[in-house]
Design a protein that fits this description.
20% strand; 205 residues
Length: 205
């Protein structure tokens, strides 16, 4: 029996959707998933016609970050390499030529939040939740969130989220500026936004 791919990519003209497709593992960003994500992003970014890449999750989860059980098995050296790998993948999202959108369909936690922060725009469903749980686990995120979140919402609100590890709703995320739009279904809204943007670019002389 063939298992389903953990990442599914679908292209519609100048717009691509990359979906994390492992809800049983809460769309955890394992080393294998990061490698697949990196290859997919680089391939799409090389296409001259590509205007927008949308990232989304499955079921009620956008992404949950690193698999804690996997992290516990890492040596200090391997943990450092894993952190650097995540930074490299998310930096490739930052540097991607197409516009990148996180269509946050549910829980957006830890490294999953770092993932969303690397995108140019973030749209969220009304039921989405955001959290950085590192303080409760005795770890600090190593994938760029400590830098990108303060730049986006301000130092004090970001520090509060990091040290309390509390969850915030999509409404609170909108108030803070973490997301720019709440919409349901969020992927449909993101696709409409992306297609309109792609069409406007094609219309320019």
């Amino acid at each position: 029996m063939t298992s389903e791919p953990t990442i599914v990519a679908e292209t519609r003209g100048a717009v691509s959707v990359i979906r994390l497709n492992n809800p049983k593992q809460k769309n955890a960003l394992s080393g294998e998933v990061l490698d697949t994500l990196d290859r997919t992003i680089k391939e799409l970014s090389c296409r001259p016609e590509m205007a927008v890449i949308i990232f989304t999750g499955s079921a009620a989860v956008f992404a949950s970050g690193a698999n804690i059980n996997e992290l516990r098995q890492l040596t200090p050296s391997a943990a450092n390499e894993f952190a650097l790998r995540g930074q490299q993948v998310f930096q490739s999202i930052v540097e991607a030529k197409p516009l990148t959108i996180a269509a946050i369909n549910g829980h957006c936690v830890g490294g999953g939040l770092d993932f969303a922060l690397a995108c140019d725009l973030r749209f969220a469903s009304a039921g989405a939740l955001f959290r950085h749980p590192g303080a409760t686990l005795g770890i600090v995120t190593g994938w760029g969130g400590t830098q990108r979140l303060p730049r986006l919402i301000g130092v004090a609100p970001a520090v509060e989220l990091f040290i309390t590890a509390k969850s915030i709703s999509s409404q609170e995320a909108l108030r803070l500026g973490l997301v720019t739009r709440i919409a349901d279904p969020v992927l449909e809204y993101a696709l409409e936004f992306a297609c309109e943007l792609a069409e406007s670019r094609e219309a320019k002389p």
